[in-house]
Structures are given as structure tokens and as C-alpha cells.
Amino acid sequence: MEQKLEKCIVCGVFYGTGKLDDSDPESLEELKALCEASGAEVVGEITQNREAPDSRTVIGKGKIEELRNAILELDANLVVFDCELSGSNTRNLEEELNVRVIDRSRLILDIFALRATTREGKCQVELAQLLYHLPRLSGIGTSLSRLGGGIGTRGPGETQLETDKRHIRERISNLRQELKEIEKNRQTQRKQRTKNEVVNIALVGYTNAGKSSLLNALTGSEQFVENMLFATLDPLSKKLTLADDRPAVLTDTVGFIRKLPHHLVEAFKSTLEVCTTADLLLHVMDATDPNLPNHKKTVENLLKDLGAESKPLLSVYNKADALSEEFVSEKDSVLISAKTGWNLDILMQKITDMTRTTEVERVLKIPYDKSHLVARIHENLKVLDIAYENEYQVLTVYGKEELIAPYEQL
User: Fold this and answer.
1) 31-35 CB contacts, 8 Å cutoff, 24+ apart
2) Which of 8, 109, 225, 274 could cross-link with 40 by S-S, CB 3.0 to 4.6 Å?
3) What pLDDT digit, counting tens, does each position of 338-380 carry?
4) What is the value of pTM for the model shown?
């Protein structure tokens, strides 16, 4: 039996500030796409211009009445707000409208819960959802107990959310510890790749820009691809051979989006850290996207928040096969089509050129009182020879010049 789609109305409030909780036409269109990605049918849209949100219900009494009438007329059973709602906002709105009410953050968390498949992905989503719900438990009151499933209720489950705050904090602590262990394994793999001179490349970009399609085109993998927001969630790393036959690893990261909930950024920090450790970032953009400048800025801001703004970056404009007019890009960029393979050879050559590093042989003198550094040197460099003198351990090493430099200053 086919599951009936939930009918939802999206609601935005225009303050004219341009800040996180402010809506605009682009933001609302994106919210509709998120609703559809979560399995809902968008049947209506309500907007209001205000100088400041109503402390009780965000929107005013007249707009509440308009929304109530729209719910009855359109037979809607869900209202999704483009801004972030407090627990008391949600409770008050549900009492006024007599349908379920969720905000943009909860909707995105719901999509992530739907798409997570790996142990790490599921842990990260559950952690993000608990971080989101914890400060809202007192405000939501008894409303959780009457939610009978549907959009905004996936993930850790209502039974988890109805437990007291102490148990939720314990679960948060356990999840963080589990993610630390997973990250330790990733760091070990990363160090081994560095030691083996494997180039690390990360795909970053706005959701649905074509990162997974490019990963498939470059590596021959079969990562799931769909024309929807957050079609893939779990990061995937694949082997890649560069134009000069050097080995590389290409990692597809989770897509960025405007108003990405800070709970998600915190929970996915270990996954997103691949951006800070990569030798090169490929910023994949949809060349046909009418909102390209805003989406590009969103990705740049998030990379800055992650501390990866100074990393070498190559702008890759995808979907060139769908362009109807001439596209002008900046100097250090490449226009491609992951779908048809057009210009992928040029892209590979650019990647190869940008990841060439100076590898040298050096002799390091490590004082005995700093012997703890020797283990780190073994992790990051090839140790060709080691000798012991009166005051120093003398190591002959080979590797990237920038990795050797700090040990030459001892």
C-alpha cells in the first residue's frame, strides 16, 4: 500500500535583516525543495513582513488566522517555518493551529536521519537531533507524546526524547565518545596516506551541485545520485590516479546549505574536518544555478567557519551540458560536465598541477629531551636512516618540505 504524502504549508517571515532567521523568496523556494526531499507535498505558502518576531508565535494574530483557514481549505496537516522556533513557539503554534509545526532546522535533521546509512552517519544525526531537542524539552511540554510519526519525528525516536534531560545528556556524551573513536581510526588512515604520499582531495559544495556525479565520473564508482537536496549524506572516499600516476583519494563530503543548523555542523565536525586536512578542495558548483553567487558565498562562509578558508581550492563549474548561453568564470577555475565527461581531462590536469609538492631529503637533529617528536616524524615522513650522537638523534628523512620544516627549527 502506497504511503500517503503529508500535506504541508511553508511559512516565512521577512524582517529585511538578511540574518539567519530572515526569509526571502530564494530561502522559501529552498524550504519547499527540502519539504519535498523529506517526502511531503507542499500545498501552500504563507509569508509576513514584520520588524520583529512575535515572542509567542513568531507571526501575528491576523496571520495565525489566515494560516488556520489555509490549513482547513488545503487539508494540510503540517506547517514548516523557515526560521528556528523555540519549544514554546512550537507549542503555542500547535495549540493555535491544531496541526504539527516544525522549523527548518528540524526538517533538515529529519532528512539527514532519513538518508544516514553508516554507523558514523547515524551517530552524527542522532547527536545533532538530541542537541536540537535538549533546550526545547521544557517548552514543548506534552506535545511530543501526541506525535504519531511523520516528518520531523525520525531519528532517535520519541521514547528517547521523552526521557529526562540527564539521560539525554548521558546519551550525548556516549555518542560524542563513539564519534571520537571513529575519528581516531580516520586520523590513523589519514597519517598512513600522508606517509605513503597519497594526495587527499575533498569535494565541497552546495547540496545538489553534482559532487557525487563528479566522484563517479572521476573514479568509476557508483555513488547514489538523485536530483534532490541531500540525496547522499555519508562521506565516501575513493581511489584516484592523477595524470602523473600519483595515487590520490577523493572524498565526497555532505552538501552545504543556507541556514545549516549549528547542531549539524557540531555533530558532523569530524566528517567535515576532511576539508581542513585535504591537500586540495574542489568547490563544485552548478553552472546553471540562478542563485549561484549566494550559494557560492554560503560555501565560502562555512569553509571559513571550519578553518579551511586558506586551503588550496579549485572552482569547478558543473552541468555545462545544460547551459543555454555563454558562461563566464574566474581565471583559476574549470567548466565541466560530469554527466557527459566534457573537460574532465582538463580538470584532472589542473588537479595534478595544483597538488604537486616539493619532496626533499633532509637530515634532522632531534635533541634527546624532545624524543617524543620522533614518533610523529615516523608517522608523517619516511625515515631513511637514524643514528645516535651524544646530544642528538640524527634522522635522515624524506617527504614534503612543509612537513619537514617545523623539525628543522629545533
Assistant:
1) 31/80, 31/82, 31/104, 31/107, 33/228, 33/229, 34/104, 34/107, 34/108, 34/111, 34/229, 35/8, 35/10, 35/80, 35/107, 35/151
2) 8
3) 999 999 999 999 999 998 877 789 999 999 999 989 998 988 8
4) 0.75
